[in-house]
Amino acid sequence: MKSEHAAHGSPHVLPVQTYLAVAGALLVLTIVTVAVSFVHFGAWNLVVAMVIAATKAILVALFFMHLKYDNKMYLSIFAGSVLFLALFIIFSMFDTLRRADIYETVGHPIRPNAIIYQQTDSTQTSTGSAVAPVDSTAKH
Amino acid sequence: MSMNHAAEHPAFLEHHFNDAEQQRESAKLGMWVFLLTEVLTFGGLFCAYAIYRSWNPDMFFNAHKELDVWLGTVNTIVLITSSLTMALAIRSMQLDNKKRAILYLVFTLLFAATFLVVKYFEYSHKFHVGQLPGKFYTFTGIQGNNPHIFFSIYFAMTGLHGLHVLGGMCLIGWLIYRTHKNRFSSAYYTPIEMVGLFWHLVDLIWIFLFPLFYLIG
């Protein structure tokens, strides 16, 4: 019984070198991300930091969490959580980053009978044109 | 066969599983679903971070300078090393090396404690100078609108993460006790593997918290 079990369910053992190599890569990437943060790339700083963090996360998930060697169902559950988190954040940002546009529209209401789709020449802003006055205090 | 059913099975195998492999796979499935809920729990906070940072980029940049990059880096290295020792503890149990497994688990526990001690010094400094969430914020040295928002999100995210570290330490302590009591072997080490997965997720979340709070460019 014992030997039969061992033959069937014997654990998948990774060599120590694999774990050490992954940990080494994680430590090097940590140093790199700290060093890069002192260089100013503007908006690219965030991108670089997130790419390095994602690389580290993938290393942890594949090797420390064994996802590379396990049943791929576990990998799909984990990938699913990350996918829905990405959707959550991206759609929230669609709202919060563009919310100011709506406030602007509310602040400059369109009057009754206004011609909304009139072409305006480049010297005039659309809100400044005579056909769609912007003085919201004058309304009502 | 059915008469001897209980006698033929190893002690760790619950009666509602066909074999040890099925039991192990079921436990792992349950653990990954739990980790999914963990990702989504922290996800809400990551989303709050994204929204408030996009609204207040300059304030976030100014406020992040109050965090100590070196303490953050040390804690990152400590946590990555603890993940390594956790993985090596599982490997030792896979090879039936009980003493080595306990040694690695103790190291993992010590690294976790080191992380929380460093966090304690960071927190107590912020409490001292009044860099606190919401209405408790009394610090005056940061330019920009509503710097208390930065510290609200900082304390919420690192606080929840710290609680996970504390919970992980309790679980690792429990593993050390059970390993010492000869409850695990290469045939059955599922609890060590599951706590390992939890511990790696805690490490993984910190991998994102670190650059988002300490390394704003």
Description:
- The complex is a heterodimer of chains A (140) and B (217).
- Chain A is mainly α.
- In chain A, 62% of the residues lie in helices and 0% in strands.
- In chain A, helix 2 packs antiparallel against helix 3.
- The radius of gyration of chain A is 28 Å and the shape is elongated.
- Chain B has 217 residues and is mainly α.
- Chain B contains seven helices and no strands.
- The N and C termini of chain B lie far apart (67 Å).
- The model of chain B has no long low-confidence stretch (mean pLDDT 94).
- At the A-B interface, helix 1, helix 2, helix 3 and helix 4 of A face helix 2, helix 4 and helix 7 of B.
Distance between the termini of chain A: 89 Å
Mean pLDDT of chain A: 81
Q: How would you characterize the largest beta sheet of chain A?
A: none
Helix content of chain B: over 70%
Q: How much helix, percentage-wise, in residues of chain A?
A: 55-70%
Task: Provide a concise account of the structure shown.
The complex is a heterodimer of chains A (140) and B (217). With 140 residues, chain A is an all-alpha fold.
SSE layout and pairing:
The complex is a heterodimer of chains A (140) and B (217).
Chain A: H1 2-9, H2 16-37, H3 44-64, H4 72-107
Helix pairs in contact in A: 2-3
Chain B: H1 5-8, H2 20-55, H3 57-64, H4 69-94, H5 98-129, H6 148-180, H7 190-214
